[in-house]
């Protein structure tokens, strides 16, 4: 094939298709989130515009476009304009690197450092938030921006470290390889339960979602870094945030839940099986992928409806004193097990001894942690009943 | 007309209007005796007993007031440790035109005492702030409203009116038609005093002063808090109020007694009916009447429903401040239903003005008890849901345990009442200490907690809702007493329309009541009820005319909020936000 | 051909933003220019067929270090700080010194580096870098780790809040 077609036109078409689908999902997420929150919170949510309020997806962007775009007179103009744009760019580029279905048809590009490139791009999303907070020239915005920067930099460390265990098991930075590996062994969420847990917590923190939504803690910082933003600029922040959520869910599914496959030990819908079904098989794989991703998006919403918000020092404590050491221990244990307990072949079938050990150890640790957290606190005050008013 | 036969044609034979006679409380002998006993015990030269009052009352010489306050506080057998209120009354024709009144409460003996100090126009009085910390804002309010200076007060600024205000509005010779404009240059620049604990701390951070409010999402009303931050730690805080001042006390003086009721709704608008109850009971005390049993029963039930609604709002918004969004709807759902019940009674929801002096505006609907029962069955489910969501949630506990604590001694000295005081472990509840409208006949507990922190306040409020439901269940089981909901006294209650149209006698009463209003006997009465936030007291002075001479409200928030700066010092901004929500500061009540 | 166009475009971007770092008065703009310069450098790595290094460049420098730089700049609120005027002699020394350094650099690169291209295909993927790092250069790698550890301990000691008495004893608590 013509290299121009192969490297430029064809990927561009695929990217545009993926981009449009992703943007529709992002816009729909807004509606889904509000409806699901309404369901959880004993209220209705948007139900006026169109059937079940579905046209809200269209109405919101129109509103954002038509609203007055207010620029504070004391803002640093260039930075103020750059702020909402910067996080959008990496959020969109990242979708080129995520395989939604069996490659090459259902992935835009394919590089052998795909995972690292995604991490690199998502880590630059913080600039928009910092800039937006700083350029608004408002104490609340600045504090929101600084909090966000500190939070994202802190949680990027456990975020990255939690992936290392997966890389050690799979031996590749290539998402396609990682997904295929899982289909032929077992989903990484089992041997890497702790890593999956850390990854999930960190991605919540990276996206500033409850209980880590401190940068936009309404009751303390008004609206955080986007206090001074209105109209489309505000919408850009939101778009970037939801895109980043989507990216992180895609990563979670690819790294820990087998991506587009639905197989264990090579049985079930592996990449090869899907490819043998032709285009429809690829489409089926994409559907499986999207279902898994949406499950995690729902968990995001569920978290938002359930948890109060951390205080800033508590958030930092959790990141530095719990998540990072836990991730390091996970790497250490995984390394030992990978070296010491390679796969055994019993009666001709592969038995993943090392992964079984890891899965058991991970489950035990999680159970212990939950037990420690749920244990009643000794110094918590109790309600005492006093029927008499005072000592006579 | 056949309806005529339903009403008796016999003329009213009760007591004639006594508005030119002095008010004599029904239990005056008890108070006079107790006052005499106190005087006997104290043997204080500067204290002179005033008899015929509704509380043991002493007229204190101006120069000795600090000494008297100290003696009352420290006397081992009396221990009047709680400064409930301090307010003023203006009598311009008197030689010393102002009365400054103090009301103290003794937890040890469960009794109150009132002190009166007469102050002349250009005189000043010694500040009691070193005896009771809680007198701080009360004295500022007296200065603001009457222009009485308090010597030795460290911060005698205006509190309810703004900095560009001239004159003192509650003086009788103040012309209310004047307008004062506050421009930006006059706005007070608050610089919080840095707490002693942090004076010498060597810090790596620039100290930042941050203004929270008056319109900030966390203040739930127009309050202003100025904090000085060292990093994220608050090392000094000052709070400013008055942004919602609506001249409740001044307006009351130009309206008739019944017309004041809608104003009381707007004090603590989360539990409006309790305010109605407090005011009506005070005026009824002054009139020497008592509402019929049916009215009292409804008042009690609606008070408890309103207390639940108040706590629901407080906990719901407090949790929202901490980011726990869902609880807000779980708690507001029953609140809406409670408002539905009140709407069925009188057509209004938030500000019902349902009570009248002497009873209720209209009778309750026939399905009132069934609806109340439905609510009592429904509310626990919502409370349980919230408890399940947050009570053992680690994130929530980390946010509230040990946050913004206050010791019982400090809380008492600041004049805390209500759930915030009970969260410190002090079992003071007006419903138990001075039962009214039949609370003494109900079986309920006063929940207290240890620690006085945000978590303790949360726990106490949750438990209080359960206790209120207990009271309500008993009230429903007893059933509504039969009979009218308004007293049978034509000097207080309007006669029924049928009678007005058909009887000369009733027409005249109607005319007189509309034109001249209720005219209580000359005197003063204080009555307190347990509001959502604590003791809600009304002090009404009557000069025998149709308008109250002076209405004083003792808003519980006022005393609580003045300690806020001290409570949050050493904490962080998110803690301050959580603590503010847990104190349930209602700006309408705070600024009256 | 395409490679040349890309190279010159991004080389120009890298140089322009690098100049902006030292010439612009506003420290926030300076920091952001540095980020842009890093991105242009990452493109250079890709052109050299070292995508792994390009990605590391973005993760480490653009994603982490510069965020912290910006963080500190904003925390100290430097954007309104007035820069004191430098004396002419300082300016003269600064310009001539850096010009001499730049010329020297160009000379030596032209003389030695450009002439000695690495022989054989350039291999810089993750595995190759890892193997080199943990086999051939294991000792310097570990030494750098220890150095960083020492730096972290030092930073902790400097920034940690000692009781004021200890500071007073050190003679610096008096400020």
Rough outline of chain C: globular
- Span from first to last CA of chain C? 63 Å
Strand order of the largest sheet of chain B: 1-2-5-4-3
Q: Name the helicity range of chain C.
A: over 70%
Compute the CA-based radius of gyration of chain B. Answer: 24 Å
* Range of strand content of chain C: under 5%
Please state the average pLDDT score of chain C: 78
Annotation, overall tally of beta strands of chain C: 0
| CATH fold call of one domain in chain C | Four Helix Bundle (Hemerythrin (Met), subunit A)
Strand content of chain B: 15-25%
Low-confidence blocks of residues of chain C: 163-175
Description of the structure:
Chain A has 392 residues and is mainly α. Helices cover 66% and strands 4% of the residues of chain A. Chain A has 15 helices and 5 strands. A two-stranded antiparallel sheet of chain A has the order 1-2. In chain A, strands 3-4 form a two-stranded antiparallel sheet. With 592 residues, chain B is α+β, with helices and mostly antiparallel strands. Chain B has helices at 28-42, 65-74, 135-146, 196-199, 248-252, 261-265, 272-287, 293-321, 325-346, 368-390, 394-400, 408-413, 419-422, 430-433, 454-478, 497-502, 504-516, 556-561, 564-568, 573-583, 587-590, and strands at 47-50, 57-60, 82-90, 98-106, 111-119, 124-126, 149-151, 207-212, 224-230, 233-240, 355-356, 359-360, 446-449, 523-530, 535-542, 550-554. The model of chain B is unreliable at 1-12 (pLDDT under 50). The model of chain C is unreliable at 163-175 (pLDDT under 50). Strand 5 (383-386) of chain A pairs antiparallel with strand 13 of chain B, so a sheet runs across the interface.
Write the layout of secondary structure elements.
The complex is a heterotrimer of chains A (392), B (592) and C (175).
Chain A: H1 3-40, H2 56-66, H3 77-85, H4 88-97, H5 114-123, H6 126-135, H7 139-170, H8 175-184, H9 193-206, H10 218-221, H11 231-256, E1 262-264, E2 267-269, H12 271-276, H13 279-306, H14 312-340, E3 344-346, E4 349-351, H15 353-374, E5 383-386
Antiparallel strand pairs in A: 1-2, 3-4
Chain B: H1 28-42, E1 47-50, E2 57-60, H2 65-74, E3 82-90, E4 98-106, E5 111-119, E6 124-126, H3 135-146, E7 149-151, H4 196-199, E8 207-212, E9 224-230, E10 233-240, H5 248-252, H6 261-265, H7 272-287, H8 293-321, H9 325-346, E11 355-356, E12 359-360, H10 368-390, H11 394-400, H12 408-413, H13 419-422, H14 430-433, E13 446-449, H15 454-478, H16 497-502, H17 504-516, E14 523-530, E15 535-542, E16 550-554, H18 556-561, H19 564-568, H20 573-583, H21 587-590
Parallel strand pairs in B: 2-5, 6-7
Antiparallel strand pairs in B: 1-2, 3-4, 4-5, 8-9, 9-10, 11-12, 14-15, 15-16
Chain C: H1 2-23, H2 27-47, H3 51-75, H4 88-113, H5 126-136, H6 138-159, H7 164-170
Helix pairs in contact in C: 1-2, 2-3
């Amino acid at each position: 094939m013509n290299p121009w077609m192969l490297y430029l036109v064809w990927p561009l078409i695929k990217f545009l298709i993926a981009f449009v689908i992703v943007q529709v999902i992002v816009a729909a997420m807004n509606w889904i989130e509000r409806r699901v929150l309404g369901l959880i919170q004993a209220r209705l949510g948007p139900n006026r515009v169109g059937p079940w309020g579905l046209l809200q997806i269209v109405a919101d962007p129109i509103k954002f476009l038509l609203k007055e775009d207010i620029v504070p007179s004391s803002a640093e103009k260039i930075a103020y304009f750059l702020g909402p744009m910067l996080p959008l760019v990496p959020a969109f580029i990242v979708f080129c690197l995520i395989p939604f279905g069996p490659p090459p048809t259902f992935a835009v590009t394919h590089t052998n450092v795909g995972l690292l490139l995604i991490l690199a791009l998502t880590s630059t999303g913080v600039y928009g938030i910092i800039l937006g907070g700083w350029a608004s020239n408002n104490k609340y915005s600045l504090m929101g921006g600084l909090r966000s920067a500190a939070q994202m930099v802190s949680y990027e460390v456990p975020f990255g470290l939690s992936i290392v265990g997966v890389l050690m098991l799979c031996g590749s930075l290539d998402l396609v390889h990682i997904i295929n590996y899982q289909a032929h062994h077992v989903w990484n969420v089992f041997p890497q339960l702790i890593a999956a847990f850390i990854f999930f917590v960190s991605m919540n923190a990276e996206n500033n979602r409850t209980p880590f939504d401190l940068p936009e803690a309404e009751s303390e910082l008004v609206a955080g870094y986007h206090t001074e933003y209105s109209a489309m600029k505000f919408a850009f922040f939101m778009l970037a945030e939801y895109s980043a959520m989507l990216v992180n869910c895609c990563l979670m599914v690819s790294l820990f839940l087998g991506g587009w496959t639905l197989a264990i030990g090579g049985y079930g819908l592996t990449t090869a099986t899907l490819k043998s079904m032709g285009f429809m098989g690829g489409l089926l794989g994409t559907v499986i992928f999207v279902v898994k991703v949406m499950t995690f998006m729902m968990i995001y919403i569920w978290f938002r409806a359930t948890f109060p918000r951390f205080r800033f020092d508590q958030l930092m404590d959790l990141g530095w004193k719990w998540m990072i050491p836990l991730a390091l221990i996970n790497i250490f244990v995984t390394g030992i097990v990978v070296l010491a307990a390679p796969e055994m072949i019993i009666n001709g079938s592969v038995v993943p001894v090392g992964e079984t050990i890891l899965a058991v150890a991970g489950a035990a640790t999680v159970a212990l942690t939950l037990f420690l957290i749920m244990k009643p606190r000794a110094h918590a005050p109790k309600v005492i009943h006093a029927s008499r008013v005072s000592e006579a | 007309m056949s309806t005529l036969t339903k009403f008796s044609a016999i003329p009213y034979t009760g007591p004639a209007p006594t508005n030119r006679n002095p008010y004599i409380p029904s239990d005056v002998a008890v108070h006079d005796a107790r006052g005499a006993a106190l005087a006997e015990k104290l043997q204080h030269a500067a204290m002179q007993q005033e008899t015929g009052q509704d509380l043991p009352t002493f007229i204190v010489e101006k120069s000795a007031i600090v000494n008297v306050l100290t003696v009352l506080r420290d006397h081992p057998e009396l221990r009047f440790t709680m400064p409930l209120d301090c307010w003023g009354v203006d009598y311009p024709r008197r030689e010393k035109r102002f009365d400054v009144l103090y009301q103290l409460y003794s937890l040890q003996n469960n009794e109150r005492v009132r002190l009166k100090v007469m102050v002349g126009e250009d005189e000043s009085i010694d500040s009691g702030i070193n005896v009771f910390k809680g007198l701080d804002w009360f004295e500022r309010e007296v200065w603001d409203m009457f222009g009485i200076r308090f010597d030795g007060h460290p911060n005698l600024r205006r509190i309810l009116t703004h900095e560009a205000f001239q004159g003192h509005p509650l003086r009788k010779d103040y012309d209310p038609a004047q307008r004062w404009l506050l421009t930006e240059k006059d706005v007070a620049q608050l610089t919080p005093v840095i707490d002693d604990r942090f004076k010498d701390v060597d810090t790596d951070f620039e100290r930042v002063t941050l203004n929270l409010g008056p319109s900030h999402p966390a203040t739930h009303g127009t309050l202003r808090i100025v904090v000085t931050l060292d990093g994220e730690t608050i090392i000094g805080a000052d709070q400013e109020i008055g942004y919602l001042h609506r001249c409740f006390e001044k307006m009351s003086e130009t309206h008739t007694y019944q017309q004041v009721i809608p104003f009381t709704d707007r004090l603590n608008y989360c539990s409006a009916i309790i305010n109605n109850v407090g005011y009506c009971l005070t005026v009824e005390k002054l009139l020497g009447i008592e509402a019929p049993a049916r009215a009292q029963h409804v008042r009690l039930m609606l008070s408890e429903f309103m207390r639940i609604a108040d706590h629901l709002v407080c906990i719901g918004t407090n949790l929202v401040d901490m980011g726990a969004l869902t609880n807000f709807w779980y708690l507001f759902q029953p609140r809406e239903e409670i408002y539905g019940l009140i709407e069925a009674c009188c057509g209004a929801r938030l500000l019902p003005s349902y009570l009248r002096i002497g009873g209720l505006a209209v009778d309750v609907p026939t399905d009132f008890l069934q609806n109340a029962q439905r609510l009592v069955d429904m509310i626990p489910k919502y409370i349980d849901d919230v408890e399940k969501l947050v009570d053992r949630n680690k994130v929530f506990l980390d946010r509230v345990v040990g946050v913004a604590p206050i010791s019982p001694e400090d809380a008492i000295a600041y004049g805390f009442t209500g759930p915030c005081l009970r969260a410190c472990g002090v079992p003071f509840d007006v419903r138990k200490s001075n039962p009214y409208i039949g609370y003494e006949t109900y079986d309920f507990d006063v929940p207290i907690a240890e620690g006085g922190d945000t978590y303790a306040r949360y726990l106490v409020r949750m438990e209080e809702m359960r206790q209120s439901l207990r009271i309500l269940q008993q009230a429903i089981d007893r059933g509504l007493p039969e009979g009218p909901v308004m007293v049978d006294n034509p000097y207080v209650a309007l006669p029924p329309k049928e009678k007005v149209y058909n009887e000369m006698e009733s027409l005249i009463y109607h005319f007189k009541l509309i034109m001249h209003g209720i005219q209580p006997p000359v005197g003063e009465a204080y009555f307190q009820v347990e509001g959502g936030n604590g003791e809600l007291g009304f002090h009404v002075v009557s000069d025998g005319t149709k308008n109250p001479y002076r209405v004083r409200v003792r808003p519980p928030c006022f005393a609580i909020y003045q300690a806020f700066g001290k409570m949050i010092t050493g904490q962080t901004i998110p803690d301050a936000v959580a603590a503010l929500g847990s104190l349930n500061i209602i700006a309408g009540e705070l600024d009256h | 051909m395409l490679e040349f166009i890309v190279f010159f475009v991004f080389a120009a971007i890298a140089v322009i933003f690098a100049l902006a770092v030292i010439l612009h008065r506003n420290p926030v703009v300076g920091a952001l220019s540095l980020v842009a310069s890093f991105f242009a450098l990452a493109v250079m790595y890709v052109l050299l067929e070292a995508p792994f290094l390009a990605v590391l460049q973005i993760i480490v420098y653009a994603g982490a270090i510069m965020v912290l730089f910006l963080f500190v700049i904003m925390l100290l609120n430097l954007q309104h700080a007035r820069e004191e005027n430098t004396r002419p002699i300082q300016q003269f020394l600064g310009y001539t010194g850096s010009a001499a350094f730049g010329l020297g650099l160009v000379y030596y690169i032209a003389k030695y580096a450009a002439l000695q291209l690495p022989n054989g295909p350039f291999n810089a993927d993750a595995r190759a870098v890892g193997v080199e790092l943990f086999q051939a250069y294991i000792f310097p790698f570990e030494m750098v780790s220890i150095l960083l550890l020492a730096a972290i301990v030092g930073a902790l000691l400097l920034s940690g809040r000692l009781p004021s008495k200890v500071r007073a004893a050190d003679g610096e608590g008096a400020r």
